[in-house]
Amino acid sequence: MGEELPSASDREVSANLTMSHQFELEKKVLKLSMKVEIGGADMPFALSIEGGSLFVFDNVVTDANDLRKVAEVNCAAITFPYVRELVSETIRRAGFPPLNLPPMNFVELYKKNHPEP
Q1: Taking the chain, what is the end-to-end CA distance rounded to the nearest angstrom?
Q2: Can you list the domains of the chain with their CATH numbers?
Q3: Three-class SS of residue 44?
Q4: Which residues of 76-108 are buried (b: 16+ CB within 10 A; e: fewer)?
Q5: Rounded to the nearest 10 degrees, what angle do helices 106-113 and 76-93 cross at?
Q6: What pTM, to 2 d.p., does this model score?
Q7: Using DSSP, how many helices (H) and how many strands (E) does the chain show?
Q8: Which pLDDT tens digit goes with each residue over 49-104?
């Protein structure tokens, strides 16, 4: 029998979320990339997972601020559960105790990253 790993609550875990987006004006397509990196001194592994989503718009969004908000709030909120599940399943299938990323409030994250003047 192997050594039992400490539960997730016994480990110090750091998770970093980064996003980027690009809008193709001619195709009316927004490409969102979301990357989650997990590590920590007490972790027996480091994990980096990147997911991407494509969003097709009926209309062209010309205002850069509106586009950024739609990408970082709406599109991110749609994409995050899939990336979150991928992280959880990858760790579970590797035989480690469950690690579930907490839900994210992308409205609050947007306000924090882009304070109004």
Answers
A1: 59
A2: 13-113 (3.10.420.10)
A3: coil
A4: beebbeebbeebeeebeeeebeebebeeeebee
A5: 110
A6: 0.83
A7: 3, 3
A8: 999 999 999 987 788 899 999 999 999 999 999 999 999 999 999 998 878 899 99
